[in-house]
Amino acid sequence: MPSVPLFPPSQTRSSTELSHDASNPLPTILHTPSGLAILELQGTINVPPSDVTEQGNSSGPQHTDTVDALTPTGKIVETELGRLMFPDYVEGDTDNTKWMKRAYLFVGKYQRMTGEVKKLAKPLAIIRRRQQQQQQQSKTGSMVDEAQVGEREGGDELEIVEIIKYKIIFASRPEPVGI
Known about the structure:
By secondary structure, the protein is mainly β. It has one domain (6-45, 66-176). The chain contains 4 helices and 10 strands; from the N terminus they run βαββαβββββααββ. The strands form 2 sheets. Strands 1, 2, 3, 6, 7, 8, 9 and 10 form an 8-stranded mixed β-sheet that branches. Strands 4-5 form a two-stranded antiparallel ribbon. Strand 2 (31-32) and strand 3 form a beta hairpin. The chain starts with 5 loop residues before the first strand and ends with a strand. The model is unreliable at 14-20, 24-29, 52-70 and 142-152 (pLDDT under 50).
């Protein structure tokens, strides 16, 4: 049975620094005061077709078109879903869990969803492939000799980015809000 090495999170950088790094593919919208969380929505999110932005309509959501060779069409449309807020969160008060009772997700300019943060029964690990330069550096920071790199070539190495302990549940319908 094949095995893949799994490494603990990098201790040189915190998860907050990881989230704001330009090379980090994880979305920053899912960051809560306690770290990353799963976003659970009941229903469907309808986004406008991508040809709306090609016509120059700037009143809709912002789209970013990127090319991805893994998709059949070669095109992925990324749409900003909204803004996540925790109105009861007090910065610096780590013992207070009152902020978990109420979370708002503002979708567009006119809708607000109210949800709450719940602890997961079993935590989930977010893992990713290690970067090439991280694979070639040993724990002491020196370069590994070429023979060792050749042995591992063809095999993937994974690292734990963060452990998710919470999910944000939005079970009710969006409510209208004014600007």
